[in-house]
Amino acid sequence: MVNIRITSKGIKKTLQKFDYLQAIAEYIWNGFDAKATIVEIKAERNALGGLERLMISDNGEGIDRTVLERKFTPFYESEKQIDAANRVRMSSTMHGKNGIGRLTFHSFCSRATWTTTYHAGAGNQTYSIHIASESLDAYTLTDNAESKAKTGTTVTFDYIHKEIDLFELKQFLSKEFGWFLELHEGKKFGIVMETGDFLDYSGIIGAKETMELEHPPTQTKFAIKYIRWTERINNEYSKLYFLDARKREKHKQPTSFNNKGDSFYHSVYIQSKLFDDFDFMSDEQYGQQEMTFGLSRKSEVFQYLLEHINQLISGKRKPFLKIHSDLIISDLVASDAFPAFKDTPEDGIRQEELKQVIQELYRIEPRIFARLNPEQKKVIVHLLNLLMETADRGRLYQVLNGMLPLEGPERQEMAALLHANVRRQ
Fold it and tell me: Which Gene3D superfamilies does UniProt cross-reference here (predicted)?
């Protein structure tokens, strides 16, 4: 028996952060981290249809016994280190945190067994690892045995005590892995569900478009894939993914339209030979020869690419926000947030102007209306109406800019909007 180097305090903190959906996702990530292309979920049921056993199998490299201690005996004390929601990664090649994620089975079952086959020397070796929920600080091992099986790992979960909704699981996995599977589109990556079908995440794709871009001076070509998601993708946010000529991910970074509070969730995948030998980590100015071939983030070709990607996303976002601004008005009306206007032509005009200002403010800065409770909705609408009745729109601009500091075009658009309304007085 081997003791895991993690305190009970660390285990308790970790397990509070994972429900069964997040836990199952962790085991799938472990498979992809082990260079698997296929991860399969299987279930065994009793005569009454109840779930007795769950298995997650992958065709990855397996767990080399010589690195087992590093895989299964982590030492994480700080909450930041073990928080699944606070992972910052510059690429998607390694997602999981070895060790700690393997203990999350505690959230839905009482025992987990890993049967893993890895390549060692002239052949493959197989062995098993067992952990029980009542003793998460220790695991037992079987002896190595020569095997003709292909490399990979199967994790078997026994004595399941949590009701697992497979439809809910499918929805969660779509939001967890849809962006990742799109990243590896064409490489035969997939998650096979209990039904034997590959995970179908098309239901959360709101729009998908492919296009090509060329930088004329250098004739550098880019193949671009844009996707808008109908739901927020788990812990990944909206990002740009840069792939080389062989479609290997080299880097990723948030888009400039990330976290705007407008439900415009998107991913952009950019493939180019340019990224075969590109240094994404350095911001230093390169020499003229390297600049010619575009190896720097500051190079003309890379800045050209970012400018056109921003234009692409902005062009997709504007009609999306127009539709959602109508929904914002409907929500405010349903929340009884608008002042009581009289049934007169004058008040009708004032009410329509107020709605137009709200729609334009939402288009410029959606965060103004994000996550408001009914009272906050009423306060902000009444405040806007009150300030519209005066000529002091500059004060409204100061208030809004103080709440959410604006930059660049958004700042100019809001100033122009409020100024235009002043002139109507």
Answer: Histidine kinase-like ATPase, C-terminal domain
